[in-house]
Amino acid sequence: MNTFKQGRYSGYLRPISYIIDLVIINGVAILSIFKEKDSFIFCLIISVSWILMSLYSQFYEVYRYTRPVNILSLIVKQSILFLLIVFAFSGLYHELHIYPRPIVKYVLLCFFLLTIIKFTIYYLLQKYRTSFGGNYRTTVILGFNKKTLALENFFNKNPEYGYSHKKTFSLKTKEHSLTECFEYVLKEGIDELYCSISEMTNSQIADIVDFADNNLKILKFIPDSKEIYSKKLRYEYYDYIPILTLRTIPLEEPVNTFLKRAFDIVFSSLVIIFVLSWLTPLIAILIKLESKGPVFFKQSRNGFNYKEFDCYKFRSMMPNKDAHLYQATRGDQRVTKVGRFIRKTSIDELPQFFNVLFGDMSVVGPRPHMVSHTHMYAKKIDKFMVRHFVKPGITGLAQTSGFRGEVETDKDIIGRVKLDIFYIENWSLLLDLKIILQTFINAVKGDDKAY
């Protein structure tokens, strides 16, 4: 029974999930496509294909700490693969006369039902943990610092994730010994151990690994935040030599690069055709009526691989020689009345959709800084240059998370860099859509830091 306790939500849930999903894809097929036809061959092939696809796409790799946006991403990826498989089947078995339109309707219906089932299970399990105290993992933390305190706080304040934190051991101050920790873990039947790398010596880490292996305990490490902001490390072998890659960047994958570029082209084209085509003349008239000078403002900024490009905006300031050196500040006298409005609503950023179309920028990504500021921050802010591993964006995760506009303290730029790195390492098309939606909501509400 212990084997099932150590499983994902439970040892039975994954097989049950497979069965439910197979019933859905086969049941919907029989009811919508094969009303009067023999569906045995289809059900057999499609069921085997579904299982193989699930293993490839890691469709059932959903854990208690998995974010809902990642679950939706898995469903979308699985549905696309499934659509291709059904189309391939229809081409192979012409005699069944399965046509494209019914196939698309069938897959969309399956996608809808699978989404409901997946999220129902996910949220029911969270409710089960908080209301009934079931499906819990007991934890201990080895090490006492800001990082471990933050983790302990996460365990205690988020019962829906199903962690019951029992104790935090301080090893650096000799308050506790490893022997005491091991005895406590065995006595209390602890499920998972979390260790702070910065608090451990090499010999202590080796002892903890041996203990966890010999007692079938799950062992996880907390990286030292002074050394790494990264969330993920890729482990691979060069011949027989183990190698750790500092960070994985999803946008280095050709498929992801193609998807993001295709989305950028389509989205920017729609904005240019349906918004900028009529809005630009109106904004141009307002800008010209208030002050002399160009309608558009061009500024050199650093983009992908640190390459400089000309970033376009609607001019929101009186023409001045300091525009390329200093950001707008609260109450800045250089900002015009029209400029105040278009900055507050982010309309001044819309010309950057031409930058997106030209390939210098993306719709979503780390915001590009003025060249002078980039040089300054690169020297004083650790990990700042990581932002240039991808194309800069019109909007970004940092901007929708409260780090927009003027950099008033180092804390602002450090927070921005951390969120930019998180975005780079966890990119998905769904995350882009979520950021775009949040940006639109912020623009309608009016961002306090948009001035």
From TrEMBL:
Record carries keyword Transmembrane: yes
Predominant location: membrane
Keyword DNA damage among record annotations: no
Transmembrane segments: 12-33, 39-59, 71-94, 106-125, 265-287
Residue span, Bacterial sugar transferase domain: 260-444
GO cellular component, one term: membrane
Protein name, per record: Putative colanic acid biosynthesis UDP-glucose lipid carrier transferase
GO molecular function, one term: phosphotransferase activity, for other substituted phosphate groups
NCBIfam families: EPS_sugtrans, WcaJ_sugtrans
Sequence similarity: Belongs to the bacterial sugar transferase family.
Keywords: Membrane, Transferase, Transmembrane, Transmembrane helix
Residues forming coiled coils: none
UniProt-annotated location(s): Membrane
Membrane topology: Multi-pass membrane protein
